[in-house]
Amino acid sequence: MAALYPNHIPISAFSRLLLGTSSAITALRNPYRDDMVAVCSETTACKALEYMQDKMQNNSTGRRILDEKPRINTSTVDLKLLRALPESTFGRQYVNMLNRYKITPDSRKEVKFVDNPDLAYVMQRYRETHDFNHLLLGQRTDLRGEVNVKWFEAIQTTLPMCWLAAIGGTTRVKSKKTTTAFYRRLTKSDTNFYDV
């Protein structure tokens, strides 16, 4: 199979299974290995990406995003402009969060192992909105915060990697009360990931 989009790496079903398994084990051992989290998410996500794409197509904002394929990176987001916004705005709070955690919109890996250009974009969009979820949910980037965000993303996206990280991460968090209470709140939430 030839490459279907820039950075695409076609792989066999066996390679997908091997990469998915090994990256999941590595990511569970060290959740800060974002490269392994990325590989795991791409090699295990096919049905979840179709589900996400379908949800987006059934939503006017989601359809527009799929049509226009906007990206969230330093070439599309004017961080200087966001810094000039009032403190009460989402844009200013987003820049404050980037500064606080010393990250940039370019921190997210490019999708490589999804064998459909449209679904690859859905995965890229998910990745690029991850920091928005931290901000909207008021969660830090420590282990507890990441686990809480992964519960939210798992419920919203059905991505196997999110479920794996949420469940695996919960077992690593010393006090499970916060995560369990957060999960219960999310299951009652009307928040729609696809409008982000």
UniProtKB/TrEMBL annotation:
It is found in: Mitochondrion inner membrane. The keyword Phosphoprotein does not apply. GO terms for cellular component: extrinsic component of mitochondrial inner membrane. Its cofactor is Zn(2+). Zn(2+) binds at H130, D131, H134, E146. GO terms for molecular function: 4-hydroxy-3-methoxy-5-polyprenylbenzoate decarboxylase activity; zinc ion binding. The keyword Ligase does not apply. It is a peripheral membrane protein. It catalyses: a 4-hydroxy-3-methoxy-5-(all-trans-polyprenyl)benzoate + H(+) = a 2-methoxy-6-(all-trans-polyprenyl)phenol + CO2. Pathway: Cofactor biosynthesis; ubiquinone biosynthesis. Its EC number is 4.1.1.130. Keywords: Lyase, Membrane, Metal-binding, Mitochondrion, Mitochondrion inner membrane, Ubiquinone biosynthesis, Zinc. It comes from the Eukaryota. It is an enzyme of class 4 (lyase). Its main location: mitochondrion. Pfam families: Coq4. Belongs to the COQ4 family. Lyase that catalyzes the C1-decarboxylation of 4-hydroxy-3-methoxy-5-(all-trans-polyprenyl)benzoic acid into 2-methoxy-6-(all-trans-polyprenyl)phenol during ubiquinone biosynthesis. Component of a multi-subunit COQ enzyme complex. This is Ubiquinone biosynthesis protein COQ4 homolog, mitochondrial. It comes from Ciona savignyi.
